Structure formats: structure tokens, C-alpha cells
Amino acid sequence: MTVAAAALSVSVAGSAVRAADAAVVSAAGGIPSSHVSSASWAVPGQTGAAQPSASPGSGATGSSRQDYVPDLIAAVPGGITAAQLASIRKLAGVVAVLPVDGGKIKVNGQSADVLGVSPQAFRPWTPLSTAASATVWSDLSQGQLISTPAAASKLHLTDGKSYQVSAAILEQVPFGGATALSVPGADAIVNLTRSAQLGLAKNFAVLISATPGADLTALKAKVLSVIGQRGQVVNLVSYTLVTEGSQPVEINAPAGVPGNWLDLFKESADQYCPGLSWTVLAAIAEVESGDGANDGPSSAGAEGPMQFLPSTWAVWGVDGYGPAGTPDIWNPLDAVPSAARLLCAVGGGSSTTLPDAIFAYNHATWYVDEVLALANEYTQNDS
Questions:
Q1: Cβ–Cβ < 8 Å for 99, 118
Q2: Which of 58, 205, 363, 372 has its CA 20 to 30 A from that of 75?
Q3: What are phi and psi of 172, to 5 degrees?
Q4: Is 38 contained in some domain?
């Protein structure tokens, strides 16, 4: 499987949309999930205490808030119209849509692809560790820039400092911090007020979450028929797999260590839980932390890319592929095989008992459905 490009972006000055499609040589598509999960949190300006997602050993359960993982993103030069958005929402196979503003602008003197979002609307589309962070959403609501960890490094951003942003205007914008955003190609987000101030293209794209049983190839074609041939639709599931297959787990890792996240998932499943599909580990890592993009600690005290509670880690943490010595909860080379070890001990190696094993990892039925559905997507979109 090869991918020709990455990153959806728009030029603010020319409104020229460039969409990087995951150009998969093998058949793209697959069977996506509804991605319905639940978590509750306090939205800035509203009452209610935050209740973070359960982590291994937490014994917590979910509530009624839905959580969507984007399967597709569609973009059109000039933006998605209200009529197009309504038509996409009605397509068979679509469970949720979210329009976003966007543009390619300069942050701290360097180019960045930035989305403009409603904090309340976008929050359920992010990994659990991001969704549960009150600080992230408070900062975003106050007009601060929030980026991915990779973008923060690329743009040389430090939490709490302000940086010049060059878009429709020049503006000093405070940087709130870095976290997992779950939209491949997006470097950062701002709220809609800041988006309008910077002149980001209104409704330049729409995120789409698909229902169980929907075929992504067929759904892409349906969405394209709505937005027209000038638009482009990207399969984010395929894109995520390609990213995991090329992203090193550790820079300058020693010989014999899994070279990328995809290899880490596969080798951990094979060695620590024969019978467990690597896609389950990949789905847990994505749902929990965006593959280590937001390691926490969460407000519940969960830590690392697989979001273990320290008390659970004390029992199940293993010195996997990381440096010899005490298992490191923050190091994915230890955390991923440890997750495989825990899952195997509670039935993860058998398809019959796998749902119970995932429930033991995080005590919520929505979480089981979410992980199994996303793992199924990875299976269908892998080649």
C-alpha cells in the first residue's frame, strides 16, 4: 500500500483547496464503524464536572455523550454549502458530519494547516485523552491556538507564549498547548471567532463518521457526487494506517526494536498475545491517546500512550522492547506490549472472549464497541 500525499489545506489568500488523498494502490475502503462512544465533560461556560474516560483498572463507566472518529474528510474550493452539508448528512452510511473552517497560514514564520472549529462540536471527535482535558477546551474557547505535538515541535511553539500568525491579518496569538487532534494533516485548531478573525475559509471541509456496515469506497463516491468533481474526499482510515507504518516509535531506536507504530502493534500482539489481532492494539492506542499524541496524565491519573493507571501498571507493566530495566509507562515500546499482556490474561487471544477482555481494559460497553469497530476498519483498510 502506498500513499501519494497527506494534509488537507487551503490557501487563505486564493481560496485554493488542496486535498491530499490517500492514494492506496490496493482497494481502498472497508467497513467503518459508527464510532459511537460516550464520555462526559464540562464544556466551558456550562456546569457539570468532568468525568474522564475509564482507563485500565479504573473501574469507571461511560455516560451518554457520543464520540466520533472521522472516517472521511471532504473539501471543496470555496467551501461546503449548507445544501451540500444537508445532502451528505442524509447519505446512507453516514452517522455524523462536522463542518470545519480551514486554511494554510503562517505561524511563527512557518506554514501550518489550521482548522477553525467549535470547541463544543469538535470535542467529541477527538481521542479520549484530549476530550477529557478541561485545559485544552478552556484554552481553545479563549482564543488560543492548540496544535498537535508534531506541529508544536515543527513550529517551535512553547505553552503560554504568543506567536505572530500571518493570515488575512497579522495577529499575535497565544499558544495553549499540544494534544492529539485525530484529523490527519491538520497541524492546529482555533475556535470559530479566531478563525473568522484570521480569515480562514468558512466551512472549507466536512468531517464524516460512517455507520456500521458502510463501505468507505462507496461512501466516498456518494460524497463526491454531492460536492462535485472539483471537490476531493480523503479516506482518513487508510491515511492513519500509512502514517502508523511510517512514523518511528523512537528516534534512533536500536537494532531489533520495532521501527514504527504498525510494527510495534503487530510484534506486540504476536509475542505477548498470540491470537490477538494487532488491529485491537492499534484501535486502543488511537482511541486512548491518538497513538501517543496525548499521553496525559488524565484527570483520572491514567498515563502513557495506552493510558494505564499506575496501580494497574504495577501489575501488568512489562519491560517489552524499551531499554532494559524498570518498565516505563510512558514509553510505547513497553506500554503497547504491556497492553497486549493484560488483554491476553483476560481472554484477548480468543475472538469469543475478546469483547470481555476489552471491557476489562476499560469498563464501558461503548468502549468495547468503539475498539472492535475501529479494529475492523483497520483490518479492512490494511493491505
A1: no
A2: 372
A3: -85, 120
A4: no
Residue 39 belongs to some domain of the structure = no
Closest by Cα among 119, 172, 178, 125 to 147:
178
- Decide: 272 and 344 in contact? Cβ < 8 Å: yes
Q: Which three cell numbers mark 321?
A: 522492547
Last residue of a domain, one of 180, 213, 235: 235
User: What confidence score (pLDDT) does residue 358 get?
Assistant: 95
For 293, 357, 373, the CA distances from 281, given in Å and listed in that order, are 15, 12, 12
The whole-number pLDDT of residue 303 equals 92
Tens of pLDDT, residues 31-42: 223 333 334 333
382: closest CA among 254, 259, 301, 266?
A: 266
DSSP string, 130-160: HHT-HHHHHHHHTT-EEE-HHHHHHHT--TT
Same domain, 291 and 215: no
Q: What is the pLDDT of residues 137-166, one digit of tens each?
A: 999 999 999 999 989 999 999 999 999 999
Q: Which residues contact 16 (CB under 8 A, 6 or more apart)?
A: 10, 77
Model-level pTM?
A: 0.71
Low-confidence spans in the chain with pLDDT less than 70: 1-66, 212-213, 239, 242-246, 251-253, 382-383
Quick one: 122 and 186 in the same domain?
yes
- Count of residues in the chain: 383
* Residue 4 placed within a domain: no
Which residues have a Cβ under 8 Å from the Cβ of 188 and sit 6 or more positions away? Answer: 107, 112, 113, 114, 115, 145, 146, 147, 148, 151, 181
Instruction: Please check whether residues 92 and 170 belong to one and the same domain.
Output: yes
What is the reported pLDDT for 36?
Answer: 31
CA-nearest of 288, 285, 289, 271 to 349 is 271
What angle, 0 to 180 degrees and rounded to 10, lies between the N-to-C axes of helices 261-272 and 332-345?
40
Q: Where does residue 172 rank: exposed (0-12), middle (13-18), buried (19+ CB within 10 A)?
A: exposed
Q: Which H helix or E strand runs over 227?
A: helix 216-227
**Quick one: which of 197, 206, 40, 188 has its CA closest to 123?**
40
Residue 181: C-alpha distances to residues 151, 159, 177, 246, 291 (Å):
11, 17, 12, 19, 11
Tally of structural domains, the chain: 2
- What's the CATH number where 349 sits? 1.10.530
